[in-house]
Design brief:
By secondary structure, the protein is of the alpha+beta class. The chain is built from two helices and five strands; from the N terminus they run H-E-E-E-E-E-H. Strands 1, 2, 3, 4 and 5 form a five-stranded antiparallel beta sheet that branches.
Length: about 90
């Protein structure tokens, strides 16, 4: 299955995204389809104290290329993890 199919799949249901593991966090790259392209977005999760905590990253950046939007989304999520760590969930 191609990257685009996994990210944006067909049909009416939301595609299942395989997370990327980074420093103990799970990054779900989920660019948002908009009229003029794809907005940079990702969900960052980590199990903390037996509970799954989640943070949604949505940026103002919009790309016309969905692959580029996915790459930037992953990069920005990693940057947030590096800068904030578990403080993302405060």
């Amino acid at each position: 299955m191609s990257l685009l199919s996994r990210l944006f799949g067909g049909g009416g249901s939301k595609p299942q995204v395989e997370p990327e593991s980074y420093k103990g966090f799970a990054i779900f790259v989920e660019p948002i389809k908009e009229a003029n392209g794809f907005r940079v977005s990702a969900r960052i999760e980590k199990e903390v104290g037996g509970e799954t905590r989640s943070h949604t990253l949505i940026r103002a950046d919009v790309c016309t290329d969905p692959v580029q939007a996915a790459e930037i989304s992953a990069s920005k999520a990693k940057q947030m993890i590096d800068e904030r760590g578990e403080r993302l969930f405060d």
